[in-house]
Amino acid sequence: MRGGAELSYQDIAAVDCVRPAFWLNEGNRSELELYQAFYAVGAFGVPLYGWGCRALECAADHGRAGGAQALRMVQAVIRNVYMITKRLIPRIDADEFRRVQVTCGWVGDEVTGVAPGYQLPFMLMLDVLFHVNYTHYAHPGVIAARANNLRFVPEDWKAFFRMVYGAQLALRTWVHESDDGPLAEAYRSCTGIFTLFRNMHRHLGGQVLKGGTTTGRVFDSAAANYEQFMSEMAALADDTAATSDVSRPAAPDSPPAAAGRGARS
User: Fold this and answer.
1) Confidence (pTM)
2) DSSP per residue over 136-167, as a string?
3) Among 66, 104, 216, 240, which lies 20 to 30 A Cα-Cα from 209?
């Protein structure tokens, strides 16, 4: 912060203080809340990285009580993001969203507007932490779109996500092998709210994105855009829900899907 003042988490999470880097319509409320909604995911998600890594440390040391506590904190983070997003997204005007999406507000060097912005690292962290494998996709365009989005993620962040995914004992595998009731309950509380978040994203995002572009792709018609978005998000929600099954260990994802989370071939 200016003058060397210390930046607190309370400062980071002050969503009401967020202002766009530039305006299409100076002071437009819907435009402002669009930026705030994306920013809120990143800001409220900050504790995820520490608590997620703490859970992995506990898995490596077989610290079940500590791991359960860390996972309960992860669940609280996802719940907070879910609640703030649920409050902000319905306020966004769909036409305003489409106007902002093609302004390079999030991408810098392109005019297609993939809008990954503040939310992408948070979603990547959840995907690698819980080993969401893209096994149900009937649409390879989703994996390609995620790989395209990764071009805007700094290399050190991608290396971090690869490290989390490559942990010697995946959380799901650890919970499966531990056969510990409180640990399993804490784990499933995370994957449950994560799945709920994805279903909410599908519903609310679908309403906002009707008639425009989504994930950096252009469709022949508004109907095709909406239908493919809803189908792809339903598949992703199914993949996320599958992580709740601790009757079996985590399995590695396919090479194309791995590339979509930043893995090197």
Assistant:
1) 0.85
2) S-S-HHHHHHHHHHGGGS-HHHHHHHHHHHT-
3) 240
